[in-house]
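name: query_chain
kind: protein
chains: 1
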Amino acid sequence: MHTAIIGAGPTGLFLGSALARRGHRVTVVDRDPGPRGDGSWPRRGVMQFHHAHAFRAQAVEAVRTEMPDAYERLLSSGAEPVSLRLPDRRELPMGMRCRRQTFETALRASATATPGLTLHLGHVDAVTSDAGRATGLEVDGALLPADLVIDASGRAGRVTRALRAQPTAGGVCGIAYVDRQYQLHPGAGVGPLVNPIAWQADCDGYLVIIFVHELGTFSVIFIRPTDDRDLVPLRHEAAFGAACRAIPGLSDWTDPERSRPITPVLAGGTLMNYYRPQTGPDGRLALPGLLFVGDAVCTTTPNFGRGITTSLLQARQALHLIEHHGRDRVPLGEAFDAWCETQMLPWVEDHARMDECLRRRWSGEDIDLTARLPSDLIMMAAEVDPAISAAVMPYLTMTGPPTCLDPVEPLARSVYATGWRPEPSPGPTRAELARLIGSTPVEVS
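structure:
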């Protein structure tokens, strides 16, 4: 069977390589020529490529299983698998410290070396069809016949947009972010961590996250309400640096004696929680023989670093269903759509609820005890009621669905009903931070 894949990001490369290793003929189409000879990779059109990422255990296991040579390339590039030591001394895999560029470079090198896979540089003009079924792609005016077409072009992909129903969950979340990468000096140890992959400060009116990468690199992320114009100056390097110095913990990481910035401050695009099914406006499959996978189906905001994981979980399920249904395109599409609805949609809904409640809290509203508590507030309540803690780890590691917190939600509600509220992390309030960065001279380029 010949499969044509739109997009050579992590989802497309992973799926294409895994299918080729199963004996399929695969063509992956992408406009990007790949890394330059000096190792740099602009990756134009993929805004999130240079921003912070986390690679959870599920994503690491997917690559290790389906693309073992890519996994070895990651290790040789300095990527570091990390685990959490549990009280009973067992090691719980948490994921991998790695930048997205390192991750994609390893996957691309492995995929292009896979027999049966062709990476075609070009622009996809359209998905071709006959008798209501996908028959391949039109690439730069030429036809590319295929038995199965996979759209792994991401949320912003335009080629198939007109075929699809509108998103059924999520939307613009009202949260924006900026981030910057740093490099630890030789011999410098890491700063404080809340787990082996990240550090977080939930400050009064904004959020700070550090994701640790390979070879002593790490990313600092500031997340704020989109409509908070007073924090927009964080996109300027002097203001970003002043904010880093003002926040305990973060100041340890970014102390010039410990690390140095290696990128400019990178402003993120519009953050969305987004779920889109396999169907068209009429509720039926958009086009039998066309499968949407990865960010084309769902995406979540970066607070928990779930993006690559949800995409590769989808990819593994798609592989299973392709092997099961073969050329039977309608059952394939319907089965994958049903799986995504039960396994992916809940994460989008969970993030959408959290982000909306977070935005409301940042605007001064109190916790709404008449509605289901968002997951982050349920977990915070474990500080008061330790009985909540048992449900937290499956949620955080995605070994359980968001509903794994449901049994302890009433316990958390009881905590908040007493009037208790989480204390903000140490550091300036939103208003104090705004005054600080507002008085910082803006550099002129």
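note: The radius of gyration is 22 Å.
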